[in-house]
Amino acid sequence: MLLRSVAKTIDLIIVVAVAEMIPRSGFFAGLAYLLISDGLFNGKSLGKQLTGLRVISIATGKACSVRESILRNLVLCIGAMLWRIPLIGWAITLLIVGFEFVMLLGSKEGMRLGDEIAKTTVIEEIKS
Predict the structure, then answer these.
(1) Per-residue pLDDT for 43 more than 80?
(2) Where are the domains of the chain?
(3) Rounded distance, CA 76 to CA 56, Å?
(4) If we measure between CA atoms, which residue out of 106, 7, 110 comes closest to residue 54?
(5) Is the Cβ–Cβ distance between 104 and 120 less than 8 Å?
(6) What is the pLDDT, as a whole number, of residue 11?
């Protein structure tokens, strides 16, 4: 779970950096990255590449598709959009992230809500 948190933190740093570097459209470019990042690069966002993790489809065991990536990250993307609304948006975002974290901790399979929706899971890559 620590690796998943580190990977997501790296991805969120990328989102914030893009949002800050590109006026006006950067926020939306960052959200787009957040949505599709797990479906790129054979199921590995940049954060997952650095931590040795991969998102796979439960049904096929293959790398997460862009569609599955969008489904699994939609909940977090909604939180990111709401973060732009002072106070109430911040509170709702923290509730969303907290709920995802509690689901991850409480799941025997290590799945958060986004994984349940997209039918995906995160695995550690075997180093050979």
Answers:
(1) yes
(2) 2-124
(3) 18
(4) 7
(5) no
(6) 93
Collapsed DSSP state (helix, strand, coil) of residue 58: coil
Tokens 């779970």, located at residue: 1
Question: Of the candidates 31, 39, 78, which has an alpha carbon nearest to the alpha carbon of residue 57?
Answer: 39
Nearest Cα to Cα of residue 122 among 6, 15, 30, 18: 6
pLDDT tops 80 at residue 54: yes
Alpha carbons 83 and 62: distance in angstroms, whole number: 33
Q: 59-68, 84-93, 97-106: which range is least confident on average?
A: 97-106
> In this structure, how many other beta carbons lie within 10 angstroms of the beta carbon of residue 87?
7
User: Which amino acid is present at 2?
Assistant: L
pLDDT of residue 23: 84
Residue 44, CA distances (Å) to 41, 48, 124 in order: 5, 5, 11
- Residue 73 CA to its chain's centroid (Å): 5
